[in-house]
Each structure stands twice: as C-alpha cells, then as structure tokens.
C-alpha cells in the first residue's frame, strides 16, 4: 500500500487499525562503471514496496537523495549534507506523526545514510517521545550476507556490489548494463574521507566489487530473501511494543 | 533520460553536450475524496519524463514532498516547511551544479511550491551566479488552461481538480478511484491561511472542483498538451541563453 | 496611527477594539539613474501611513531592506537573503501576535519580496494558526495599472518605473532628481537570475522604464489612487473574517 | 546624506572618496506611560542623520526593531531574537561591504542591543577581515552623562528616561505626551531576566525614571551635545586607521 | 602533551613536525546508582592523555557534554542535540585545521556519540578535503572486549558497566562509590528511543550492568590495555596516509 | 561539588535543597609568549570549583572553548562562533533546567565571551522564563582590580596579563613557564577587530601585559581574593530572589 496511491480517507481508515509505516531511503550516487546512479533507491524502494504488499503496511515516498558527499567527484551524484538530511527526516516524521503514525521503519539501501539517520532519530525522539524509529539496511541482514557470500564471495566488495546491481537489474531488466571484466579495485582504507580522497583511491567508483558477476537471476533470489527478512524483522519490531 | 537509470560515465558524456536538466516537483497531500495523495508528484514526474524522452533531456529524481503545510489536517499529507524546501532545493542544485549543470527546469505540479521555489532560486543565484532556474507549473500553461476550460468549465476548481485527477488516472489506470457526484465546494477566500482554516473551509479537501468529471481519456489529451507545451517552453528557454 | 508614535497603553486600548495592523515593506536597492535607492520603502511606507490615518489602522515600522539580491551589483543596494527575510517576517509577526494582533497586511513596494513573503506566511500559519496575512503590492492593484498605462504607456517598464519615481518625488519633493532622456532599456528575459546577469542585461539599472516621464504631479494622483485602493482592499479583507 | 535618498551612482561617487557609513539602531519597545514605543529608534536615527549631515557621512536605513525580548509583556513591543539580530546585522554589513564600505559605525539608542551587536561584530570580522565596526550608544557618552546628571539627577533612571523622552519630543514636538507625576519606580536588581520578571518588577515599564521631567527644550540641548560627541568620536575613529 | 598546558609557540613547533591531534569526547550523563555522571568523559580524557604522553601527541580539550538525549530523565544528565554536536565538532576542527592540523583522532567514551560524530565527519570533509577524522570508542577495541568478557562476563551489560566504572575509580580513587548488589537490569530492546522510554525500561539507569563488580584494580588493567590499543591504532592510522 | 563526580541520585538530592549551579567558562586561546593556551579555562574552573566547595554549590563541566575568533592567527587557538556559543549555552541551560536548576552563575575567565553570553541569556529567558543567569568575570571584580593594580600597576595590561598567568601557575605549578623580560606591547586601539588585525597589532599575542611579573605566590593571593569575591557575589544573588 503506497501513500502516493492512497486517498486521505483511506489513510484515515488505515490509522484506525495500525500506525506503522515504511520509509524507503536510498541514494542518488555513482555505482561504478556498470551500476545505475539510482541503485540504492531502486533496491530500497523495491524491497519496501514488496514487504508493504505482503503485510498491508503503508509505504511512504522514498528519500531518493541521501548522504553521498563522498561520491560527489563522480558526475551525476547528488547529496544532502548530514544537517539537511537530519532536518528532512525530522520533517517527514513530523508530518506523519501529526496524523498518528508512531512506528517508522526506514528501509535503507545506502551505508552512507546510517550515521545521519541515527543522529536524526535522536532529534525525532526529543520532539516526539512516543515515536519509535528503526533502520534496516537490507544488504546487512544475515540471510543476505550469507547469500551474497555464496554467490559472489570476495567479488562482492563494498560499493557498487554485484548484489545490489543484480537486484536493480532484476527490478528493471531494461536498465541492465552490459558488464565487462575489470581490474580489481582493492580496499585502500576502511574509512572514507573526502570526495577527492574517494576518487583518488577508487578511480572508477567501485570499492572491491566485481560488477561482472551481477546477474538479474541472482538478483531475483536476493530480492526474495530481502523481502522475507525485512518482513520478519518488521513483524518482530511491531509486536515488541 | 532518467538520472536514476544512468551510470556516472553516461552523465559525463551528457554534460559534454548539454547542461540542462529537469527536476520534477510535486507534493504528497490530500486531493479530496477521490484524488490520490501523490497526484501532484505523479503528474509532474510523468510530464517531465515524457518531455525528457522527446528531446533527450536528463530528468533528476522528483521532489515528492513539497510545501503543503495548509493540507496538514488531512491524514496522509506530508510537508516540508518553506525554509527546509529552500534548503533542499539549494542542495539539489549544489550537487548538480558541481558537475556542470547550469539550467534547472523545475516542472511543478503544486501551486503551494511556487513561492518557496521562487525564494529558493534567489539563494541559488547568490551561490551560483552562472546557474539559471525556471519553474513551469504545467497546469498554468495557456494551452492547458484553454483545454481545461473546454472540458471542465467551472467544475475545474482550484484543488483536487478533474484535470489533475484525469492525468493521474491516465498515467496509473489501476489507481483510478470510482468518483461520485458531490455537493459543490465553493471558494471561500482567494487566500489560504492555516491548515485548520483550510479544513474548516473545505471539509473534504477539494476547492471548487467537481471530481466526478475526472476521466482518464481526457487525462491522456491533457497530458499530451502538457508535454508539448513544456517541451516548447524548454526549447525556447535553453536557446535564449 | 504609527506604532513608533504610540505608547504601550495606547496600543493596549487599540487591541481592545481591533487586531489588524499594516506592515509596510520596501527595499533598499538601485532604481536606475534617477530613482532613489529607497524608492520602494518610501512608496510603501507613504501609502500605508496614509491608509492608516484614513481608517485609524495601526502601522508598524517598515521593513526597509528586502529581498534585492539581484540588484547587488549596483552600489548602495542592500539585501536580506530569502531565508533571513522569512525569519525576520516571522519574528515581527511573533512579536505582534503575542500581543493579540491577528491580521497582518503587508503593503509592499517591491516585486522581489513577493515570493519570499509568501513562503514566510506559510511558516507564520504553522506557528500561529489564528493569524492571517495579506500582501498588497500597491503598483499591481488594477486602478494603479490602469492609471499607469494611461500616463506612461510602454514607458512604464518594469523596474525604476516612472510611476514609482513620481510617487517618491511627490512624497519628498526636495529629493526629486533632474531626469533626462535616455536610450531605451528593453526587457531581455522575463526571468531574473543572478546580480551579475542583471547588471549585464540592464547596465544602468532600469528595466524598460522611461524615467524622464516621472512627474510629482502624476505621483500625487497615483498616490491618491493607491491609498483608495489599498483602503478598500483592507476593508474587504477585515470584514471577510 | 541618507542612503534612501541617494541614487546608485551617487553612492558610487561617495565610495570613491570614503568608505564609512552610519547605521542607526534603535528598538520598538515600551517606554513607560509617557514614552513613545519608537523612542530608541527616533533618537538614534535623529542623531545619526544630523551627524551625517555635518560631515557628509552616509547614513544607512535604521534598524528599528532590536533586541527587546525583556519588554515583550507590554503591548506594542517588538523584538528580534539575538540570533536573528546577529544574522540581520551580518547581512546588512555583507551588503554594504560588497560595495566597498569598510567602517560601520552603529549609532545605538538601546542598551539591550549592545551584547548582541558585540556578538555580531565577531561574526562580521570572521567573514570580512578588513571591516571594522563600532557601536556608540549616544546616551552613554561622557558629555551626555554629565548633562543628564545635571538636568535630571536621580530622576534619570534606567529605562524610559527623561533624557530620551526629551530628545524624542524635541525631534517630534507633535508627538509629545502630557506627562504627569508618578510614584517612584525603584531599581529592583541590576540584571534583567525574562519579560515576565520585568513586568512584575516594573509594572508600568519605567525603571527608576521620572518621566515628568521630560522637556523638549532640554531635549534640544541633549541632542546638540550628542551630535557633537558622536561626530568627534567618528572623526577620531576614522582617522585612526 | 595537552593543548591547554601549551603556549602558542610550542604548538607552532609541534605543527612543524606533525599534524595529528587527539580530541577526547565523553558525556555528562547518569551512569546508574554507583557510576559517576562524568564517567565517559573521565575515561576518554584519561586514556587520550596517557596515549598522548606515550607518543608525544597533542591532546585537545575534551568534549565533555555529548549526545545523551536518551538519558535526560535522570537528574544531572546534560546533552547537546545531534545538530549542535555536529556544529560544535565542525568548529573545533575548523579551529585546529586553520593552524594546519589534519588528522583528528576522537577518543570516544560514549556510544551515543558515534552516529552524530559520523555525520559530523562528512560535514568536515566537505569543508576540509584534506582533513581525516577517526573515532575510537575505547571500550569497543577487541583487547578491551576480551578483557571485559574475562573479568565481568554477562555482568558487563551495556550502560553503566563495571568496566567503565572500574576505569573511572582507578583514575579518581577518591571518587569511588561504595557499590552494592542490585537486581538484574535486563536488556529490553536493542534499540533506544526517547528519554521517557529509557527511564521506563531501565529505572535506575543501568542497562544489564552489574555495578557491584566494579573494581579499581581491574580498572587499572583495563586502562593499560586501552592505552596500548589506542596507541597502536593511532600509529597505524597516521602511518597509513 | 562537581557534577562530573556526582551520581544522578546525588543530584536529585541536591535539587531537593537548592537549584543554583556554577558553569565555568574560559577559552582555549593564545596567551602570549609565556601564558598557557588554557589560561582562561584554568582560572575560571579553578575559582568556580573552590567556591563550589566552600558553599556546597554544584559546578557543571567547564565550557573550555569560548569566543576567541580574534586570536585565531596564533597556532593552537580554538573558537566557537558567537552563534554556536549561544546555541551551546542554550542547550547546557536546557539540560539542567529540565531537571529543575534555575540559577546559572557563569564564572568567566575571558572577556571575549561576555557579549555572546549576554546575547545567549536573552535566548535563555525567552525559552525559560523562570531561569536567571549571571556572569561574573573574576578579573573584573573590584577587589581583584585593586589587588592587580597594587601588584602589577600598568604592567597588568589587557591580554595575557600577569594576574591570570600568576593564578594559572599557582594552580598548576608544574606548568609554569620561565618568563623573560620583553619589549612593551602597547594598546593600539580599544576595539578589537579581525584576527589578522589582532596579530598585526600585537605580534606576540600580549596586549600591554608584562608577563615577566607573573608569580605563583601572587597568584595564590589573587586566587583567594577571587574565591571570596565570587562567593560573596553568589550569596547575594541567590538570596535576592
């Protein structure tokens, strides 16, 4: 159930029954030579939408531009600053909390958002003591980690990974790019610094990822695993309260 | 050409040829008893995407939550404050201007965004003297106004109009709601004040709109007219410089 | 009745009877070769003061520096950024709303303020649901447009116009500048971009205005028309509620 | 020489010769039973204007609403918060520094502005290392203190003083209020806290001031002393550099 | 080498040789019935100071109040909001980066700071592309985790832990509180929400910690392990560049 | 009684009896050739702590980095901007006022903080009408001024003074620097402008101070005088209410 495809009275009815909502959050940033700039938003939105359908949970619009400052030396990347992303998160929650929503489950597709989301949640709780927020980065869920290790091994890497490319190519087959084998892109440091640093260390944008392994069929399987895992996590969380 | 479906090297190539980009901006707000909460974003995104395809112009992600504070007494409405929407607009332009984009054409689906966008542009020019911005509210273009008057006459109204519902139902036929005749919803004042004022004056959310006139077939025609008109306006504007 | 010339107990008495107030808002910006930098503030303050006298409406201090970023390449121009002008507007309303004022009529002398004021009002209503704001740009009122067309025709132009110069020279005759005929200053584009763009397109600051037509006697007539029209608009608006 | 009564080319000429400017700053706040709400702005603007005429120094528009939060329990008082007043001061200096002004002399009529102006200047210097700012609170100048002691003795008090009322009644004789003897209004504490505290301690708004001593003739003398003293201070300061 | 105990010329000399600096960051928040409110700052400052002495690395003043909004229902707790802590972190780095420092190692004593610090670093890199930041939460270092498990097992818990109490009592023996056995304080949820939620779930402030196990002698050992581990991590990091 | 060395239940007990608290505020800035960068924080913290012990008043953590923008051309100086220091002050007060504290006595060691603290207090009172704040700059207290004049005469100067160096060397004897006679450092102007201006006028950082006069034994005496004077001032202030 998508908010954008609902009427206000349908939302009124929904709120009479439950007060949880998914907010997909991705990024608009380079994903290496063969990955789509929208990969993170595509995956987060796709997974949240499917989970929402399975259990009838409302899905708000996606935050499509996230915290990607470190990718800004690659054309097409967009980013909010952390301070702005905190403010935006707070106002989205303000809006929905004003109607009675009180459990916000952010389905996240981008590691760079995590710290800022965490900071934002503390601002949320200060303003809305009865609200609870949760971030689930789909690719970090244990069943996903297991499947990714099995399919791609060390080729998975850390950015522009074959797993996220596979899911995006499964969801939008016509957008699949023809991958080719490339040299390795080894991890230089486990910290990320400025955008200039990033481009110098990882000139084509990948970090340790063998994009030639990307495959929509594997994407379909990973997608199914992700939907199951997010759904289970959501059920546990909403029952907890 | 959608940014989210591009790779960074494709954007690099695009920038070698042209530096204009569309940014669709809508709203996530009540649209009366039969209109979708996402109507404004759906229309703006749909039109901008089609225009982008016609002339090969890049289309950035849509701003789906706009300035809708006056709709906040209807469940499901979301809004940024004007100050935040200015900040978000500025950072989106910052991001793309950093790569060399310099003409930003905002295809707008929501009247409540116009003042704030205008304010934002002045902040943009202060920071980026070489950037130019343009807002086109598709429903205000003369050919649209003419067609709307012909199809809906006084039933068009001012919010939750049959024209925007028609376009949204044309673009997403499966989301079409079964409209029914309703009492008139006369315009109380030509100014809008607080959300409480709005709900008191317009209890079901419409302003003067006869939603029962909404028709996907008319939507298709309006959509075609809008795409032509936005395209023509974009061509003139980009040639001007 | 001017706020600055009142005592606090006089305002207490006023509030026992009515809660409306005028706030004149102008600009401090170049007005071409013969126009005063304070033209917009002079006109707005003069008209609001006269209207206030006619109906006993309180007039707050003028906002003398408005949103004039696009004029900043001409010496002497001053500007707030839109974000700051929103903040200032909000705090002026906060101050007066704390005492019980609830209808704020901004008499505006500068087109560049309009978008920002509109954005500010949305912030006002969020914080003060019972407050109502109205902007009246005196030069846009239909009787003014008619009179201006009659007196100046195409020579009126868009910035540094003979009508505003005439009103300012009528109000401060000793400040009248000796105008001279100048070359035409044709409109380049109907949008305004950065300050550098503005100066390049309009090197002496005028936009399409024949300042040699400015005449204090015509100014007197325009002033009278403006006072009548603002007064009528104010009466209708305050009765509406 | 007033900025509002200048043309941009006259300012260009001025800047070719000197780069100093006065900015009057007052307040819009209660001044006890017989004092005008605009007293502080009236005095600061009147003195700065006269000094400007004497030495041909430019005078910018007045900041009419200052930091008066502690007066907000009296109808008609207006205030910016310190953070906003810092921002406004910075943008006024930004505007004029962009044209080449580099010595900003704030002629101040209100004690409540002093701390905030001091804070603002540090922000100014961070952004504009070549700019210098000076605050002169006219009523604190030694010759004024001496004259005030002579004319009013202990009756001068601390707020709504006979000296400032006298100056304002001299400048605007038609605004003179008929004063009457009142009970003493003794100083409770030498610190000011919240607006509620202020109203509780000083119910009619005065602090220790005998407003019945106010006299436009004395006002004329004080005004003359102030103009001389500010002029002398300005000359020394501008020669120093 | 402590910044506060240095002269400016000693810092000039230091910068001629190296550009790294430690910034201890703790918290001022409740630490259960027997823990000191300053525990996190005490540990972070103590460890950073000792490491600084070992390798001659400069240590800046400690950030003593961190992000502790969730502890605010316990008297004495203090907190910055995330937005403010980001701003403060940015200005501390601005200050030191202006002198040439470019490696900022934050020695952290409080889990609640981590997300906000991460967000702050992205703002830092945007402004200072040549700066690198690192957070080390001493209690999360593998040798610490191993030692803690050995000494305290499950009694370690998550907040107000015997390990941090032990270190603080070792560093300030005179501040040791007489602990007593208490009921278990089981972990309710692995997420933290509002301050009211926290107090309801953990009424005496501890999370799963057996404070009666705290022992200054164990504190001494943990402290030694921490100093060694932070030192090693710092050496590796500074050599990396 | 130091907040950092208290438990939350001890603070709860304290609040049952009294609601006043000291907040020491210093600076981290150059203090000339022989003065420690932490001088202002060292003195303020030392004095506040001793006063707190004498009367059992709680002492919060010190604000160690203050408003020192004008010292930023000397290595090691750190500063918050005024806007940030206002925000930090407000959040510290917010935190403690939430627990019931209502009298905040800032013991200040740095003149550059005074204006900004004053501005901050107005923001505090707006948000917390029942809170009262007081700044005491220890070195400005009359008994200190008298003692300083006696010990150092004109050699005291205005920055990096022998009195503050003496107190810091008394409190931390091992940090005493070996002073030497230096040329005079005359006062150039009684205003301070930008950091570049400061360094140009006062190349070694002192203003008019003969640091060779610094003496820990005199420091001990000054410290005792300061503790007595602050204590007396605090008692009077807390009784006043």
Please provide a written account of the structure.
6 copies of one chain form a homohexamer. In chain A, 46% of the residues lie in helices and 8% in strands. The mean pLDDT of chain A is 97. Chain A is an alpha/beta fold and 241 residues long. The two termini of chain A are 23 Å apart. Chain A has a 4-stranded parallel sheet with strand order 2-1-3-4, sandwiched between helices. Chain A has 8 helices and 4 strands; from the N terminus they run H-E-H-E-H-E-H-E-H-H-H-H.
Q: Whole-number radius of gyration of chain A?
A: 18 Å
| Uncertain stretches of chain A | none
CATH architecture of chain A: 3-Layer(aba) Sandwich
Overall outline of chain A: globular
The helix content of chain A is: 40-55%
- Order of strands in the sheet with the most strands of chain A? 2-1-3-4
| Helix-strand string of chain A | HEHEHEHEHHHH
Oligomer: homohexamer
List keywords for this structure.
homohexamer; 241 residues; alpha/beta; Rossmann fold; four-stranded parallel β-sheet; 8 helices; 4 strands; globular
Layout of helices and strands, plus pairs?
The structure is a homohexamer of 241-residue chains.
Chain A (H helix, E strand, L loop, with lengths): L7 H10 L2 E6 L13 H17 L2 E2 L22 H18 L3 E6 L5 H14 L4 E6 L4 H11 L9 H10 L23 H7 L14 H25 L1
Helix pairs in contact in A: 2-6, 2-8, 3-4, 5-8, 6-8
